[in-house]
Structure formats: C-alpha cells, structure tokens
Amino acid sequence: MAYSNATIWGAALAAVLLASTAQAKTLDVAAGPDAQERLQTALLDAKPGDVVSLGAGKFDFTDGLSLDVDNVTVAGAGQGKTILSFAGQKSAGEGLLVTSDGVTIRDLTMQDTKGDGVKSKGADRISFVALTVEWTGGPKETNGAYGVYPVASTNVLIDKVTVRGASDAGIYVGQSKNIIVRNSRAEFNVAGIEIENSTDADVHDNVATHNTGGILVFDLPGLPVMGGHSTRIYGNQVVDNDTANFAPKGNIVAAVPMGVGVMLMANRDVHVFDNDISGNQTSAVMLIAFSRSFDDKAYNPLPRDIVVRDNRLGRNGWLPSLPGGKMLAQAMGGSVPPVLWDGITSYPGIEGPAPRLYLKDGPVLNLNLAKPGAVETAKPSVTPSLGTPGLPERAAVVLPAGQDKPAS
C-alpha cells in the first residue's frame, strides 16, 4: 500500500506529540524550608507539558520567581490553600514573571509582593485561573502596582481571579491582543479592571467593587503599542466603588475620581451593555479625553465609536469627585446624570471626524468642555440620550482550542 507524504508527516507528528505527552511529568513542591530554592529550581527544570504542583500550606519567599519554559502549568491546591507569601521579599520586582508561551497559573494565592503580583511579558496563550493576588495590609500607596499583569501578550485568559489592594490596577491587561477577563473579582484597588492599549477584549461576568474606579478602558501615548480598540464590557456588577484614590502621585490612575463605575478614555470601539452599575458617587459611566500633553501625532486622545446601552443603573452621581461636583449635583436636584461625557469633540493637530457616540442609558451630562480642563468656560447640558444607534459590535473573542476551558 502506498502512503502519501501528508499521511507520513501526520503520523510522524502524532508520534512526536504522543512521546511528548508520555514524557510530561509532575514536579511536586511542598511548603517548608528552602521553598524559594526548591520552587525556582522546579521552574527552571520543567519541560514542556510538565506541571509544577504546589502543595497546601504557606510558602515564604525573599525574592521573585521566574518561568521561561513553554507549556508549563503551575498549580496549587486551591485559592487560600496554597499561599505564596512575599512579605519578606527584598527586591522590588514582581512575585512571578512569565516570559514563555502556553503557561497556566492556577489554584493558588499570592500575597504582599513588593512589586506586581504575577506578570506575563511577551507571552502567547497565557492563562490565570482560580488565582488570588492580595496585599493583606489593605489599600496602601506602597502596595505593588498590579495584581495580575499580562503585558505585550496574546490570547490572554483571566478566569475566577480575585485581586485586592493594588495601587494601580488589580486586573490589568496592557498592549495585548485577544483577551478574556471573566468570572473575576477586583476590590479595594485603585482601578479594579483595566484594559489599556489593547485590542479585542471581552470583560464579562465580573464583580468590580470598592475600588476607586471599577472598570477602565484607556489608550495612552508614548507606549510601544498604541491604538487600543474593540472592547466589550458586559454582564458585570460594577457596584459601590468608594475607595479613596491611593495611587502614587504622577501615575495616570492617580487622577481617577473616587466613585466611577466605568471610565473610558481615548479608546475606540468600546461597547458597555447589560451591566449592573450602582453605588458609584461620581458617575456610572464616564467618557473623557486624554488631558496631558503628548508629542505623537498618530495618537488620538478622544473616546470614539462608543456605545453605552441597556445597562441597569442604580443610584450613582450623588457626590461627584470633580471640580465643582458637589455644587453641580445640588443644582441638578441631588445627583448628576449617570452617564457623563466631557463633550470634547476635537483636538488641535488631530484630524478626522467628530467622535461617534451612542449613549442610550441617559440622562447624559455633557460638560461641553472646549478642551481638557476648560471647566470655567463650560456650559453643561443634559439630554435624555446622545448619538444614534448603529455602531457595529464586533464578534466575541475566541481563544485557541484547549485554552478556553471553564475553570473547575
């Protein structure tokens, strides 16, 4: 019988995959003395397909950890059962840095890192599942900036993650593409969940509560990847975001007003729908232009192609943390409308049509600012809604086969 080249190569590939699977092993690491050295050694010795299994108990570290081997799973015995404590960490880096592809971090808790909790950089198919990152001393400026922090990564899954106490953003995805953030909880952070300079993100079925701001979608200038677009925010509970801003001065998020539910800045094609948004004293949804100076002529500082529709809005906007916010709320009968737009439709040196918006969930407060910060010349107006329907919504994010499995 004759065999085609395709058949021969297919059989060879299947044999290689079978051999690789057969060789995969579990590297067990228990809590106790020398946990730092034993775990880092396991991460260095791991081969593709291996599982680094951490037993129940508390692991104490004095330095950060790193993983640069593809297709490795780091798994604990469960959130709150396997605890990686970095309270004694001497360096200011992250707790765990991942720079390889096909990695899953799951079923464990990380505490009190000096820098970020767990970070992936330049990774493809990176998954954070059933993971807790927290700073046990509560909200403090000296806490690490980010809890879960994939940057410059592709095919990102964040599922059943909890982050508490980050001094910038609890769950942060930056300069990345093809992202799902779901079934997670962000509380007592400055920004609960932030999508920044990223493309194609679905943020759904999460709880963002007791942060300074609940869910943020930004695009910033001066970064290696800009032009963020195409984010869907839906099915979330964005409630009671009431923590005073504790970000270090100078950080972008240090300017986020306390009590914002969803904040959109300088990003494109963002759809906010089917969320429960209440208990946010400044605004349910805020749309603003980037207000700092920048040199990049390709950067567009305006929010555009934005849809806010069919959300369930409770009490919001009773005490806006904005210049003159208290007086504005009093003048409007005790609270400002739930959707706030700065009203900036053009920017010097930026060419193109005025931003397209469809803000169905009014009333909408249009501050009518001529430019960022021009509050003294503004003449705010209120409309039942703003814009017209018809802005197209993109399809759902789809992750590679095998990555997008529900967390057990």
TrEMBL record:
SUPFAM superfamilies: Pectin lyase-like (SSF51126)
Claim: DNA-binding is one of the keywords in the record: no
Database matches in InterPro entries: Beta_helix, PbH1, Pectin_lyas_fold, Pectin_lyase_fold/virulence, SO_2930-like_dom
Segments traversing the membrane: none
Boundaries of every Right handed beta helix domain copy: 95-242
Keyword field: Signal
Segment forming the signal sequence: 1-24
A Pfam family recorded for this sequence: Beta_helix
Protein name: Right-handed parallel beta-helix repeat-containing protein
Organism: Phenylobacterium glaciei
